[in-house]
Amino acid sequence: FECCAALKESACPYYMYLNDDSNDCASTMFSYINLYGKYPPGLFSSECKEGKEGLSCADVPQRDAATANGGQHAQSRLLALSTFLSVAVALLFH
């Protein structure tokens, strides 16, 4: 599904912000996707799956300077992305 690559390209560089529960970045992003992209709710969560942990951002360049922490960062990235996808699914089916 070609939209999955676009979602990863758009969201992965900002996963730290999208997974931060202290802001509404994920909610805002999916609101814009649904409102301006006219995509049906749940499209990305039902079509874009790479495993039980969700999408992997390993092959997507990061734009945050804090991403230079190697293996430890990869673990936190996986946790953050799975949290992001959980929030996204909850928001899309709410």
UniProtKB/TrEMBL annotation:
Xref: Pfam families: LLG1 (PF26578)
Domain of life: Eukaryota
Residues in GPI-anchored protein LLG1-like domain copies: 2-55
InterPro entries in alphabetical order: LLG1-like (IPR058888), LORELEI-like (IPR039307)
PANTHER family, sorted: GPI-ANCHORED PROTEIN LLG1 (PTHR31533:SF2), GPI-ANCHORED PROTEIN LLG1-RELATED-RELATED (PTHR31533)
Protein name, per record: Putative GPI-anchored protein
Organism: Paspalum notatum (Bahia grass)
Gene: gap
